[in-house]
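Quick one:
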Amino acid sequence: MIRAFRDSDREAIVDIANRAWAPIRRMSRQALGDKIADLLVGAAGDGRSKGEEVRRQIENAPENILVCEEDGKVVGFITFMIDDQKKIGTIGNNAADPDCGLKGIGQQMYRAVLELFRNRGLQAARVFTGLDDAHARARRAYERAGFNRQLTHVTYYMEL
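Output:
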């Protein structure tokens, strides 16, 4: 079941974010080295940084979060932003609980948020993801959801 965020969902969502992003944090640290990785994740560290980012999203725009619930338990979440002026919706941080054992959670959440975008009169949707191996599953999921046009992007770093 997809529904609006409730304040009681906060800690479950933060926990899912931290666990779901663990492989991405490992990849980032390996690719960028400790110095840059530490700067990017901040004081929260690899194990908590994504959860803290999602916590800030909850504090700033709880109305822009949907939750997937199964048998009363939060098993996924999706954040989004709407630019009414440009008529574009953006899918933000989203994840399914990596330990729940259910399939199709992501697709349910994408369908729900894309329907929300359509109902708001938006003309396009976008999502950003990495091109590395750690993001391969996310890329496939977005393609299954219908995302079929892309611009590639590279971010360079250097230690100073």
